[in-house]
Write a structure and sequence with these properties.
By secondary structure, this protein is α/β, with parallel strands linked by helices. It contains 17 helices and ten strands. Helix 2 crosses helix 3 and helix 6 (79-95) runs parallel beside helix 7. The chain binds 2'-deoxyinosine and zinc ion.
Length: 355
């Protein structure tokens, strides 16, 4: 199918809920930062390096996909580099027409040079603020919220949950757990999730990506996740269009699915974009959102993910608006602020596009 041209999608306002800061660096920035600290890279030409990330992440396994992060995390160990990467992230998302983004990363992975958790968070928040201000000045306003991630194989989730709550009034809007899923169920971090619930805070959980329904069930029914990071394996509870109890619960409660089409193809969660369950899940009216996961590892952008879906499933502007409004409705910022973006930015733009 023809699909909507990428350039047109770039111009439309979009919202992004699932994007990793350490999965979205510019290849040229990695080369410069690595040179400055003497970190050895697989190659030093930015274009080659960009291809290396995509090819290496194209592994068919989440564990191998995650190995590529060693190089991005290695160059994000100082306040200056964290600030730079966050600033460029805000600028790149704004240039792609993203007007609202929640970007996540794991502060515990940025302590190798002796930074404190608070220093990491403050450097990233300052980078997002500076990048957003520059984007606005250039006529591309964007709001960036931060999610702090705890690594599911580690044991710092309570500490990171407390860190998130400490920065809730200065830009951190939610919490997440990420990393290899098999063998590391969400309930390992139950104390952190119960703490966050007592604090009336928001969190999403990577679940139902490399592991199936038990992970999703725990994330929702034991841990109380507001959203599912990926959640794509919820299709295992749907047979011939008929929903099982867990799938019904997720749909009926309007639990947002942060679907990441290209990432799922690379980790082997789905065979191809055309085979992605997003088509079925949309038809069944789940609260589906479209996301990038890791723009560097997938060589992608939110506009490209949407363009691929318009090609594969024949979607038009009405569907792109639907995905965008779903994401805005599911954002972790206050209701009135979500509504303002939907009514004042998203809907007027799509009214013109849909005609
Ligand atoms: O798709 C993913 N699934 C699980 N973990 C992931 C995914 N993408 C990135 N991560 C991990 C690697 C990063 O270093 C970490 C924090 O952003 O989150
Ligand atoms: Zn992710």
């Amino acid at each position: 199918m023809a699909g909507i041209p990428l350039d047109d999608i770039v111009k439309a306002p979009k919202a992004l809920l699932h994007d990793h800061l350490d999965g979205g660096l510019r290849p040229a920035t990695i080369v410069e930062l690595a040179d400055g600290i003497g970190h050895a890279l697989p190659c030093t030409d930015p274009a080659d390096l960009g291809r290396w990330f995509v090819e290496s992440a194209d592994s068919g396994s989440l564990e191998r996909y995650l190995e590529t992060f060693a190089h991005t995390v290695a160059v994000m160990q100082t306040e200056e580099s964290l600030h730079r990467v966050a600033r460029e992230c805000a600028l790149d998302l704004a240039a792609d027409g993203v007007v609202y983004a929640e970007v996540r990363y794991a502060p515990e992975q940025h302590l190798e040079n002796g930074l404190s958790l608070d220093a990491v968070v403050e450097a990233v928040l300052a980078g997002f603020a500076d990048g957003s201000a520059e984007a606005a000045a250039a006529g591309r306003p964007i709001r960036v919220g931060t999610l702090l991630t705890a690594m599911r194989h580690a044991a710092r989730s309570q500490e990171i949950a407390e860190l998130s709550v400490r920065y809730r009034d200065t830009g951190v809007v939610g919490f997440d757990i990420a990393g290899a899923e098999a063998g590391f169920p969400p309930t390992r971090h139950l104390d952190a999730f119960e703490y966050l619930q007592r604090e009336n805070f928001h969190f999403t959980i990577h679940a139902g990506e490399a592991f199936g329904l038990p992970s999703i069930w725990q994330a929702i029914q034991w841990c109380g996740a507001d959203r599912l990071g990926h959640g794509v394996r919820i299709v295992d509870d749907i047979t011939g269009g008929k929903l099982g109890r867990l799938a019904s619960y997720v749909r009926d409660k309007r639990i947002p699915l942060e679907l990441c089409p290209s990432s799922n193809v690379q980790t082997g969660a789905v065979a191809s974009i055309a085979d992605h369950p997003i088509g079925l899940l949309r038809d069944l009216r789940f609260r589906v959102t479209v996301n990038t996961d890791n723009r560097l590892m997938s060589g992608t952008s939110l506009s490209r993910e949407l363009a691929l879906l318009t090609e594969a499933f024949g979607y038009g502007w009405a569907e792109v608006q639907w995905f965008t409004v779903n994401a805005m409705k599911s954002a972790f910022i206050p209701f009135d602020e979500r509504l303002a973006l939907i009514n004042e930015v998203v809907k007027p733009a799509y009214a013109k596009l849909i005609g």
